[in-house]
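Box 3.1 A note on notation
Throughout this textbook, protein chains are presented in two layers. The first layer is the amino acid sequence; the second is a token string describing backbone geometry. Keep the layers aligned when reading.
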Amino acid sequence: MNTLFDDKVVWILGASSGIGCSLSRRFSALGADTIVTARSEEKLQALAAENAHTTPLPADLTLTDKLPALVNSALAIHGHIDIVIFSAGLSQRTLAADTPLTNTRKIMETNFFSSVAIARELLPHFKQNGGGRFVVISSIMGRFGAQQRSSYSASKHALHGYFESLRAEEWKNNIRVTIAIIGYVNTEFSRHALNADGSSYEKIDQGQQKGMPPADCARRIIDGIRDDKEEILIGGTEKYATFLKRFAPKLLSRLLRSRNIN
């Protein structure tokens, strides 16, 4: 049976674990050819071994000067790309006053500048190919800031601003943007968050432990892409904080001052 994603090429950045890994598996099951990128070649090879339609393309996305060559390598695999998913991410577990600029730069390079660099390189291809879709894996932290998330939240706010503008500019060229605003998902994302000295946090937040399975999150993201949604809000009760931000911002502000969200 044909699906919407038969013969489509999907490039997933940040695919070695968590949501990105689950997206690769689900897209492959739906008939797409997937290209998977992350730093860990070993994890990518293991993912590719599960499905013959998955191609590993390891890279360090913080090395933005090398990303134009990475885009060319990705395009050379199948000759075209239809959907690119920005799932690579890095967070923090430090107060703004304790977060060195080097950590903020690393977070912005991973979460924001790598996505911008790749999107700019792919735009000419999408236009020549008659269209394409950028999928941004964001967070409820892209809607408001919270304790110990200053740089991470800033990177997600930046993604929203950039890709909403890109959507408005490139709609006429059949280039679509889907932003997935994610709450708690049961992954190891917090384990890799940065401490003040640049070391890894090495803990799983309680909210994440109780979050939805990444496979369920991936399914909802793909359903939103299939339905051509511009935004997809995914999560448990924590997602309603985004509505508080809009309709009762002072109440949300008091809640965020009174407790941490870990």
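The first strand starts at residue 9 and ends at 13. The beta strands are 9-13, 33-37, 54-56, 83-86, 132-139, 175-182, 231-234.
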